[in-house]
Amino acid sequence: MVTAGVPTIPDRQAIALIFAPAGRDAQIAGSLVAEAGVTARPVRDLPALLAGLSEDISFAVITEETLRNADLKDLAGWITRQPSWSDLPFIVLTQRGGGPERNPAAARLSEVLGNVSFLERPFHATSFISLARSALRGRRRQYQARLQIAALDDGERRLQTALQAGHLGTWELDNATRVLTTSATCKAIFGRSVDADFSYRDLFAAIHRNERRRVWKALGRAIGTGSDFAVECRTVWPDGSEHWSEIRAQAYRERNGRQVRMIGVAADVTERKLAEASQRQINEMLEERVARRTAELEAAHADTMAEIAQRQRAEEQLRQAQKMEAIGQLTGGVAHDFNNLLMAVLGNLELLQKHVDQDARALRLIDGAVQGARRGASLTQRLLAFARRQDLRVAPVDMGRLVTGMEDLLRRSVGGGVTVETELAEGLPPALADANQVELALLNLVVNARDAITGGGTIRIGLRQVDVVRGGDIAEGRYVVLTVSDNGQGMDEATLERAIDPFFSTKELGKGTGLGLSMIHGLAIQLEGMLKLQSAVGQGTTAELWIPAAVGAADRPEAADRVETAAPDGMADAPVRRILMVDDDVLIAMSSVDMLEDLGHEVVEANSGEQALKILESGEKFDLIITDYSMPRMTGAELAREARRLRPDIPILLATGYAELPAGMDLGIPRLSKPYSQQQLATEIARAIAAEPVGGPSGA
């Protein structure tokens, strides 16, 4: 019997094996066993006894003479192989008692059987029943131990899974001996390999020399007072590179209250600290710009209610920019992690659909879950757009053709009560943009304009070219400006100031996410353009999306209505490939491997860049490498560079939810945007294998 995967105590049917083939011994023992509340199961010979032994047997009753001259090697082997919680009780019916003085053969049986009780014949029925019940109680205590061991094992597995998902390393320090015990992940956080020694002295040697005294004092205070230990500090890896680690621990005490060790976790927070440093630089730059502008205003207009007003506006713009940048940093990180979770959910649901094709109710439930996950993925993409971390495919785009191609869709979207007019300038240069994202932005602006109009009205869509000569809100250069204007109710000044804030909406609850303008603002900034909004109550709203124009005669506009190459319908008919799948996230790796194997491919899984390189160095042959980008110690881009050094001709796919890679990491390899479906995965595999690799070992 099992409950939620954990064995339970078989209370309902306790079973005793009875090996007493001579005379009426089996019948008598069976009757007495039944009085003890146990079901008797007689066996004819020793092989039958061995076949009947299992974890569900409560105890065994054996007559001594049946084992006297038998080969007990197989029985002894079964007893030795019992799980750690199990020690099956044996009751041996003997003619001369169980003591070695009266019955020397009993010593041999005690050595073989282990947990054995001897009952000398003739015996009273109550003695046998009492012995049987005692054996049953002991066996049930063993079953209880099995439950506790299983629960401990399950808890340990859950803990390890949580630690791996959170990229947390564990460590333990003995207060008396200063012996440090660390997990493999903890060693990796300090730049050490799994098999490397990492002592208490090594730990402090790995901490930046300017941080050691602070960390040492904090640890000493925690050990001395029993308080929690928590520090963030710079660390230096053996290769000389600097990183940031967060180290936390609590005191572990014995039952008498004596503190004996510190137990804690460590995490690599380098990426967060770099983001904070970048944020500080942005703040300093903005503050310097405001200070410079304020100084200029003070020098030119020392005595004017205008200089003060301009300074106040500049300060407000600074606060707004700082707020939006901070929200963007937070939003981008959350959206990226949420993308990973959706990747695992969508991948598993997609595979699950194939196994319940005859169960209409299950298909309906799975379809509902898929739709919810896809809505979450759409929301995540909007968050990434706001945080300027969405994956863009920037190319020269013919904006006139894009708008013209969408006219029918836009008119259907606004309905019959609203008129859509276009005014598109001739001879416009192509814009450097992602056509799909600009289409989505235009549709959002038109729908917003429609919702602002009551009782019928007009939406005007325009395109024009603007040359910026002097820098201001935007860099100098040529821009293509997409304008959407309406004659709706408009916005007051307070609403206009918050219009691009994420999740801010003036629509009714459930009518919008409040991410439309935030997404367009993020897209504009990511394209190195801008979004300008002008509005007044009763006078409508004008939104302008400024996009840099493509420069140079070699730029050729991309068709706005391009169609992504789809994988053939018969995905299962595609050639079988041998693929190396690399991802440090256990859930995503499992989901991706399942999708690849469902497509018919042979997959080898690696959970770090270092592990993947060892597999490649071993000489194993692969047709393709699929690697996550964001991994500790070695990113997917760094792995790609090393893999190209070993195998210059191997195709590589880089899976990521981020738009931009750090400088020097772009090897020109194709990217697979998360979350991806099995169809998209098959498509990108076909493309990657069909295309020639770009760049060599140096990434040139």
Automatic annotation (TrEMBL):
**Is this entry keyworded Heme?**
no
* UniProt KW keywords: Phosphoprotein
Coiled-coil region(s): none
Looking up InterPro entries in the UniProt record yields:
CheY-like_superfamily, HATPase_C_sf, HATPase_dom, His_kinase_dom, HisK_dim/P_dom, HisK_dim/P_sf, PAS, PAS-assoc_C
Q: Can you tell me where the transmembrane regions are?
A: none
Please give the residue positions where the record annotates the modification 4-aspartylphosphate: 628
What's the EC number here?
Answer: 2.7.13.3
Molecular function terms, GO-annotated: phosphorelay sensor kinase activity
Location of the Response regulatory domain: 578-689
Q: Which reaction does it catalyse?
A: ATP + protein L-histidine = ADP + protein N-phospho-L-histidine
Tell me the superkingdom of the source: Bacteria
Boundaries of every Histidine kinase domain copy: 333-551
Q: Where is the PAC domain?
A: 229-281
Record keywords: Transcription included?
A: no
The record's section on PANTHER family has: SENSOR HISTIDINE KINASE, TWO-COMPONENT SENSOR PPRA
Name the UniProt record assigns to this protein: histidine kinase
What is the species of this protein? Hoeflea marina
